[in-house]
Design brief:
alpha+beta; 4 helices; about 20% helix
Length: about 200
């Protein structure tokens, strides 16, 4: 899922009311779904198909239940839901060093394990990085350029740290320059680009 409808700028006009960011509740379902789909429609127009976003039909089931440890958050200004974001565990990936070699775990005697099976025949295990994905970032149009998106992202990043993740990834449409800059300004670096999207990561 690409990001959409979020706050692409720094806080130029801070909200006059306190911004409350909290975990999703069942009562938020209709407002959260409407907000995210409105952001998609604004970006893609008639090409936006709600049927391709079925995760929004039951946000609790899609993001907040089971043993996966997912999280969906909402932000309110007063009684109005103005932003959303999600954090979900990603399959752990190998940690690479500066030369592009996979980092290996340490042997039980404190010595580095062998990459190729040498060192007395002790085969090194490739280290993995606990990884989370940020998605469904969306801010109501009338509340953008107020730092709301940045605060939701910061909230999610802090939650990722507290949950023990060491790496956070996300993706956005590669032609959406505001979105690209939004993540780059916050320390994300592009690791891959495909036909449609740019993929980013940041180490925590």
């Amino acid at each position: 899922m690409t990001d959409h409808g979020f706050d692409p700028t720094s806080s130029t006009h801070a909200p006059t009311q306190p911004l409350l960011i909290r975990g999703f509740r069942a009562a938020d379902q209709a407002a959260a779904r409407t907000l995210v789909l409105a952001g998609l429609a604004e970006r893609w127009g008639a090409a936006m198909d709600p049927a391709r976003n079925t995760d929004l039909d039951d946000i609790t089931a899609s993001y907040c239940s089971g043993a996966g440890g997912g999280l969906f958050v909402v932000a309110h200004l007063g009684d109005k839901l103005v932003a959303t974001g999600a954090l979900t565990p990603e399959e752990e990936e190998e940690e690479m060093d500066a030369e592009g070699e996979a980092v290996v775990d340490m042997a039980h005697d404190g010595q580095a394990c062998s990459r190729g099976g040498g060192g007395g025949g002790y085969q090194g295990r490739r280290a993995t990085v606990p990884t989370a994905r940020i998605s469904r970032m969306s801010v109501a149009k009338e509340h953008r350029a107020q730092g709301v998106g940045g605060r939701v992202l910061a909230w999610l990043m802090n939650e990722a740290r507290e949950r023990g993740f060491r790496r956070v990834v996300c993706e956005t449409t590669k032609t959406w320059i505001d979105a690209v800059r939004f993540y780059e300004r916050r320390g994300f670096r592009m690791v891959r680009e495909d036909e449609h999207d740019r993929h980013f990561e940041v180490m925590l």
